[in-house]
Amino acid sequence: MRKVVYSFLVFAVLTLAGCTLPKMVKMSKDQQLTVTPNPLEVHKDTVAFDLAANLPVKMLKKGTVYTLNSFYKYGTSELALDPIPFKAEDYPNSKTEAPRVTKSFSFPYQPAYKVGTLEVEGVASKGEKAKKTPRLPVATGIITTSKLVKPVSFAAFAEHGYNNQEELVPVVIPDFIFEQGRSVLRPTEIKSTKGKQLDAFIASKNATRTVTITGTHSPEGAERINAKLSPDRAAAIEKFYRAEMKKYDYKGKADSINFILKPVIQDWNEFKTALSSYEGISSEEKAEYLNIINAGGSFEDVEKQFKKLKTYKKVFKDVYPKLRTAKTEILIVKDKKTDAEISVLSKQVTQGSVSADTLSFEELMYAATLTPSLEEKAAIYEAATKKGSNWNAHNNLGAVYIAQANENPSNAAALADKAQAQLDLAVKLNEAPEVHANLASVAALKGNAYAAYSHASKALGAGLRGDNAAGVNGVKGYAEIVKAQYAAAVSSESSATDNADNLFNKGLAQVLNKDYQNALTSFKEATNKNSNLAIAYYGAAVASARLGNAEGVVSNLGSAVKADPSLKEAALSDLEFDKFKASEAFKGALK
Record's SUPFAM superfamilies (predicted)? Predict the structure, then answer.
């Protein structure tokens, strides 16, 4: 009897389970499933979405579990995602309240995933018994607009260090000494070493811009009261200088020299300087003179106070004569090679026909800026790398390889490797901002947006300025789009070089940041720079679609396909345009 009762109970439980699960599956038709965003979107190489599930009231029965299984199906394959289990025991109020949960999902993006469907199936189970619901499509495909980003790179050249402008070099002639109270240049001074030095200088006919002659006097009355003494001493040197130019037949060259006469009258600075270097008295005794000067008073009153000092006669004898002078400072034009000479010699250096020492390092670095040819630049910078350990030579050679990669995309990988090798040497010598800027570009060329962002940030943080800063901002903006930092990308691109690629990336960042109207402006600016930039028209079509502007979608897609027919296929499968695909105007734009 007990066996019969037991068997009956087992049969009853199984029958109850058999009835419960089909009922749960039937009730699941009223479940509410919401996917956000829908369609799915790829950002930062990842497809992320939230699935919110609400089950009907009374659907969960005691001891049961209802599991939502999600799958992303593409082609003949599918990607299984994490399940969402609803255990009846976790929802004690399920008879009066709808069980609900929201779960976040993500999976790495692959191009094969672009066309696909997110499907959900429910599994009602109790013990070992289970019953599945039919699969339900809840989202179709993936929007891949973020993948339109254009990788950009920029060649950041460091300064060559050469001054190609006219430079003036000072030539100082030792002071000519005059007798007390007189302004006549004595023959003994003319025949002295300094006189011969000035004569030899004038004879060499150096290109001279200015001759500044400063006439001075000593503090005592005989000198002080003669207001013309200082200017006359300066004039005496000018007279001698002009006579010498005439002797050496300067002709018109003399007229280009500007003589500046600077008489110093009743000024204590020359005395202070001479006293400071005078070793005939102690520092305490020197201080006595300085205290009198600092106390103020007329030039004559100060001189009277000097005469009361016990060291005055010694100072008068040793220091005062050195103040009766005319100082001559000449500014000559530094002798330099012409740009043409530097260009010719640099080419000969690279060909090995002249010694590398024919040009200085700075001249060689400057020579590279004088040619538009990237091949010639590379040869010159390579020669510069052999003139010692100079980070800027390695940096600039790496920059040339980056520029060549930009011009030759088919060979970009090999050129990026060559640039990397030079920049690795440069950064060991100096972590200069230009080096990090170029390392950012190499990383971009190699498809590593995260490394590009890191190096670009270091370059800008280290104070990179001017065109190089604008160039690396373009690289940084590209990397920020890949990193899904869209607001930051808009900011970076707003400070980037004003070219078509950067303007396109700016527009794309604005689309992804939901600033569609400004995105249209940026895309327009991009096509104004490059009317054949098909992707910019395509981006404008996307922005128009998000604004619900059918006319903008059609006109921009028409321009995009005209510039690049391959975009026709992209537009047909792009979920951005789903609302417009049925229109004849849309179909006509893609013909």
Answer: TPR-like (SSF48452)
